[in-house]
Amino acid sequence: MSRSFFITGTDTGVGKTFIARGLATAFMDMGLCVGVMKPVETGCRVKKGSLMPTDALMLMEAASSTDPLDVVNPYRFKTPVAPNIAARLERKKINLEKIINAFKTIAAKHDVTLVEGAGGILSPVTNDISNADLAQLLGLSVIIVVPSRIGAVNQALLAIEATRTRGIDIAAVALNRLGGQDASLPYNKGEIERLGGVRVVEAGQEE
Hints:
This protein has 207 residues and is of the alpha/beta class. It has one domain: Rossmann fold (3-Layer(aba) Sandwich). The protein has 8 helices and 10 strands. The strands form 3 sheets. It has a 6-stranded parallel beta sheet with strand order 2-7-1-8-9-10, with helices on both faces. A two-stranded parallel sheet has the order 3-6. A two-stranded antiparallel sheet has the order 4-5.
């Protein structure tokens, strides 16, 4: 039976793609076939008249994915804002059924599927659906990426509470060190584990 995870975070720019790529590599090293998905990507650059979803392409490279880009990344926008706002500004509509069907197509062919959300756990995907709601609709366990810096404990606990109140399983918290030094670094992992009751794994490289 395949296993799938939704990679989310406490904010944008916290290293979700870095963590997802690392997971893809780790699962592949275990001999598993890995599928990846970035349902919606905003802030895409334009190349030869087409929008290029950088995160989705990096995920595909990490997993050696041969799935069509339009299945891995059904929706892409140029404007670097939340998906629902980008869709509104660019006069497009995000169809959840299309995302769900794309996920089912990928998951059916792989041992493990990694789905990376856009923005933080409660960032809106549509006007009515957040990343947390999307994870729930897809039936996925969540991996929450938290930047390891001062404030990490509060950010992690807020994300954990928001996830649990929706009945979503938390597979782990990934504490990602983005660089720099502050006095909280030796303590963040232990405090999040103690107060959040979750498994915390650490990543020590910048995205």
